[in-house]
Amino acid sequence: MSYARPLPFDHLSPLGKSFVAGSLSAACSTLLLQPFDLVKTKIQSAPPGEPRRMWKTARDVVRAEGAVGLWRGLTPTLARTVPGTRAEPQTPVRH
Q1: In a domain, 40, yes or no
Q2: pLDDT tens for each residue of 41-77
Q3: What is the CA radius of gyration of the chain?
Q4: How many domains does the chain fold into?
Q5: Residue 50 falls within a domain, yes or no?
Q6: Which residue has the higher pLDDT, 68 or 22?
Q7: In the 3-class helix/strand/coil scheme, how is 29-84 assigned residue by residue?
Q8: What are phi and psi of 71, to 5 degrees?
Q9: What is the per-residue burial (b if ≥16 Cβ within 10 Å, else e) of 43-74?
Q10: Are 15 and 89 in contact (CB under 8 A)?
Q11: Which one of 1, 35, 63, 83 is least enclosed by Cβ atoms within 10 Å?
């Protein structure tokens, strides 16, 4: 007698499982790296001649908008990144 319940994605094809795994991976990395992307964008859009440092820029964002401000723009980034993950079928490698 087995008490193991099926996992939520057991019914998916290997391609479907690959897409779900890729989407979750993309969402996690986007959530983790969004503050760095926001700071990079602010540094790149600074007026010419204005020195911008990573930590100073991050501190300015936190002072102006709170820590949540570091994740501003997350929704459009997720909307672009998650569906853009490609599920590619795995092919065996010949040696």
Answers
A1: yes
A2: 999 998 888 888 999 999 999 999 999 999 999 999 8
A3: 20
A4: 1
A5: yes
A6: 68
A7: HHHHHHHHHHHHHHHHCCCCCCCCCHHHHHHHHHHHHCHHHHHCCHHHHHHHHCCC
A8: -105, 15
A9: beeeeeeeeeeeeebbeebeeeeeeebbbeeb
A10: yes
A11: 1
Q: Examine residue 34 and state whether it is found in any structural domain, yes or no.
A: yes
Answer whether residue 6 is part of any domain.
no
Average of pLDDT values for 77-83?
84
Nearest to 91 by CA among 36, 16, 14: 14
- Does residue 69 contact residue 62 with C-beta atoms inside 8 Å? yes
pLDDT at residue 17 in the model: 78
CB 65, CB 72: distance < 8 Å: yes
Distance CA 57, CA 82 (A): 27
Name the residue among 77, 87, 74, 84 with its Cα closest to residue 9: 87
Long-range contacts of 35-41 (CB under 8 A, 24+ apart): 35/70, 35/71, 37/73, 37/77, 38/70, 38/71, 38/72, 38/73, 39/70, 41/73
